[in-house]
Write a structure and sequence with these properties.
Blueprint: H1 12-16, E1 25-27, H2 29-35, E2 41-43, H3 55-71, H4 79-89, E3 96-100, H5 104-116, E4 119-124, H6 130-138, E5 142-145, H7 150-161
Parallel strand pairs: 3-4, 4-5
Antiparallel strand pairs: 1-2
Helix pairs in contact: 3-4, 3-5, 5-6
């Protein structure tokens, strides 16, 4: 799939995903003082859609682009539109989304896939903690452990998606 300039067209998708809330900003006065700054604020991304990272936002965007490209349409502007487009593409056969991960990216993609009724296959390198594998699997994904480091797992996942490459 080539690059797509979505600009602001899909900006409403994350905000319309069930469970969305704006990222809270947290004041860190001790850090501000140590830096000699009047104020320091941090974005707290420790609970995005019940997941411990912001990666679900990127997973929703990337999946939106892939589904839209497959459907021959522009990216969806809301999650409801995205979900409807996905439902049309899963007939007669379901779509499977695939990635390789060390943890958070795969769990995020599995979460979006579950919300959309898609199958997710997540490749993970050897040595991941059992809790990481369970968290990804609990999102409904098929977890495929490889004996490779993450970047090689990404190659394996790409070959699974795109036979002949």
């Amino acid at each position: 799939m080539g690059r797509t300039n979505v600009g602001r067209t899909s900006a409403g998708v994350p905000q319309s995903i069930p469970g969305y809330s704006p990222t809270p900003l947290v004041a860190v006065p001790a850090l501000a003082e140590s830096l000699g700054a009047e104020q320091v604020w941090i974005k707290d991304e420790s609970d995005r859609f019940g997941l411990p990272a912001f990666k679900v936002l990127g997973a929703s965007w990337a999946t939106n682009l892939a589904v839209s490209a497959r459907a021959g349409r522009p990216p969806a502007r809301t999650f409801a539109e995205f979900s409807a487009a996905t439902a049309l593409l899963t007939r007669p056969a379901p779509l499977t989304v695939v990635t390789a991960t060390d943890g958070n990216r795969g769990r995020a993609l599995a979460h979006i896939a579950r919300l959309l009724g898609l199958t997710a296959r997540i490749y993970v390198p050897a040595g991941r903690l059992a809790g990481t594998l369970k968290a990804i699997g609990d999102e409904g994904a098929q977890v495929v452990e490889t004996s490779q480091v993450c970047w090689r797992s990404r190659t394996a996942s790409a070959c699974t998606c795109c036979p002949g490459n």
